[in-house]
Amino acid sequence: MGNFEFQNPWLLLFLLIIPLIIFIRIKNRRPQPAMKISSLKAFSGGESFLSKLKPLLFLLRLIAIGLFIVALARPQIVEISSTVKSDKGVDILMVVDTSLSMLARDLKPDRLEALKEVAENFSVHRPTDRIGLVAYSGEAIAKVPLTTDHRVLVNEIRQLQTGELEDGTAIGVGLATAINHLKDSKATSKIVILITDGVESIDYANDLMYVSPEAAAQIAVEKDIKVYTIGVGTNGMAPFPTRRDFFTGELIFDMQPVEIDEPLLEHIASETGGEYFRATDNQSLEEIYKQIDRLEKTEINEIKYYNYTELFGKFLTFGLIFLFLELILRKTIFKELT
């Protein structure tokens, strides 16, 4: 729905003519002519119905004048639409740890749910950037390739859960998967946001399918990809899921020490030109994403389109209708004897 406005609103001041006309009419109303007659019986019927309606002619004239003035002020409905584009966009891959430990409840309601909420808000507020999503634990999978369709991205973020992939923490594999999707990007800036709450648990030395975090970081440097790393978890102890109740199947939580390989995450960030952050609660996690958002700004060009629907023709038409109606009534039903 557009906005109603006037192109020449100052012309509406001429509407003040209407009360002036009314004042002049009242002031200059001619007194009724008087004459002496022997009896008033012939006029005992009072005023006729038509004589009571005669002021309607004056009202029609005033309405017509008002409509003409409004038409001159050019009433219009303005609809504004806009498109946002960027010549210097950022390609971002969010790499999310979905291992079982992400259900730890040192963040509320747990680490994974807290992360999903913050990641969703981050994505929504970067409409011109291509953003993708990689989930990893003991293996990695690209959930969403680089896209500007953030509805699809947000939907996949909301559906992140533990247990879909082989258990473990393959930080190197998650990072390498993201690099593989970013390496051919032509964007001005290529970014990985790597989130984990643990320690690399894959013996990549004895399995050719895996790549070490250090080797992945070196590839990122070669491909000019910056990596921001985030360690999620409080300091000290936290309630971790350790087993399921035999009868209900619900997770049972026990207090265990929080272990995050901060030196490794700091190394990855330092080597690639990024930064390392530690999120110990929901608020700090949210602030980290805001800080990354400020660090990786995109130059946005917003183009606005204005669509004008002119209404002066309608007001002019109705003004003419009221004017002609007044003239017709004056020359017919209310015709005065001369």
UniProtKB/TrEMBL annotation:
Renumbered to this chain, the signal peptide range is none
Keyword Transcription regulation in the entry? The reply is: no
Q: Which InterPro entries match?
A: Aerotolerance_reg_N, Double_TM_dom, UPF0353/GerABKA_families, VWF_A, vWFA_dom_sf
Residues forming coiled coils: none
Question: What are the transmembrane regions?
Answer: 6-26, 56-73
Instruction: Please name the Pfam families in this protein's record.
Output: BatA, VWA_2
Sorted keywords for this record are: Cell membrane, Membrane, Transmembrane, Transmembrane helix
**Superkingdom of the source species:** Bacteria
Does Cell membrane show up as a keyword for this record?
A: yes
> Taking every annotated instance into account, which residue ranges of this chain make up the domain VWFA?
91-292
NCBIfam families assigned: two_anch
**Name of protein:** Ca-activated chloride channel family protein
UniProt organism field: Moheibacter sediminis
